Amino acid sequence: MDVVARLASQRAVVIFSKSTCCMSHAIKRLFYEQGVSPAIIEIDQDMYGKDIEWALARLGCSPTVPAVFVGGKFVGTANTVMTLHLNGSLKKLLKDAGALWL
């Protein structure tokens, strides 16, 4: 889990993803359309991908991807992120983390 915490704290927004996952693609697009440039960790292309996926599962990520971290804190998977977006609270999280300036 240390590797996940270290990676998640490197940028304001970090998305753990799989390159073949349609929900991961949708979440990445959501952030890009908000004007956010997240760090993307494609765990299916990472040498330590299996370890990262195991650590995400231990954090409670179900499914394990996409897993979104904002300001170094686990926000949730696709369902949670979409809910935050729809109710308007995702923008505040992004502003507070310094990922958005407007």
From TrEMBL:
Pfam families per the UniProt record, alphabetical: Glutaredoxin (PF00462)
Domain Glutaredoxin: 13-75
Xref: CDD domains: GRX_GRXh_1_2_like
InterPro entries named among the record's database cross-references: GlrX-like_pln_2, Glutaredoxin, Thioredoxin-like_sf
Cell location: Cytoplasm
Keyword Cytoplasm: yes
Superkingdom of this protein's organism: Eukaryota
Keywords: Cytoplasm, Redox-active center
SUPFAM superfamilies referenced in this protein's UniProt entry, alphabetically: Thioredoxin-like
GO CC terms of this entry: cytoplasm
Xref: NCBIfam families: GlrX-like_plant
Family: Belongs to the glutaredoxin family. CC-type subfamily.
The protein's name in its UniProt record: Glutaredoxin domain-containing protein
